[in-house]
Amino acid sequence: MKKSFGPETIVFPTPVWCVGSYDKDGNPNIMTIAWGGICCSKPPCVTVSVRKAAYTYGNIMERRAYTLNVPSARYVKEADYFGIASGKSADKFKVAGLTPVKGELVDAPYVKEFPMILECNVVHTYELGLHTQFVGEIMDVKVDESCLDDEGKPDILKIQPIVYTPQAQKYYAIGEFLGKGFSIGKELT
């Protein structure tokens, strides 16, 4: 038997992503979100959902760009802090001791120390209630060379992304390899 939880924001996993933006004065800001995901293959697009009350919301609306920064497990404290503090009253990069880098293709900063970065230009916004969903066309994906596999592709175990459980408010690292996509299921055919 399954227990019903009603309409809740419970799904596993949710990503721990840090959204980089510039404010109206050109100051770099960073905010952690858990509501987001890939939404289109061609053109490649990713969504992030941000509350209108968040400082990042106004930044993205004004600049029409953001970076999506994937922190590794070693930066879980910094990522949590980025979701607690407000860019209105704190220089979060400075407090966390991390380095903002100007995006090469979009008008938004990224975190130098994080292993994976997506540079995104906003192509759509959707008002969903408490949150606004920003659909960003991915202009570039940057991955530290030390986080690539033998074939030169991003390696999830080297990147060590963090996932989050919203209701329990807990962070987790990625676990063991289970099987190859579009392959392991063929064992059932």
From TrEMBL:
Which UniProt key words apply to this protein?
Flavoprotein
Please state what the protein is called. Flavin reductase family protein
| Source organism per UniProt | Desulfoglaeba alkanexedens ALDC
Q: What highest taxon heads this organism's lineage?
A: Bacteria
Task: Output the Pfam families linked to this UniProt entry.
Answer: Flavin_Reduct
Q: Drop me one GO molecular function for this one.
A: oxidoreductase activity, acting on the CH-NH group of donors, NAD or NADP as acceptor
Domain (Flavin reductase like) ranges: 9-164
Q: InterPro entries per the record?
A: Flavin_Rdtase-like_dom, Flavoredoxin, Split_barrel_FMN-bd
What protein family is recorded? Belongs to the flavoredoxin family.
Q: Which cofactor does it need?
A: FMN
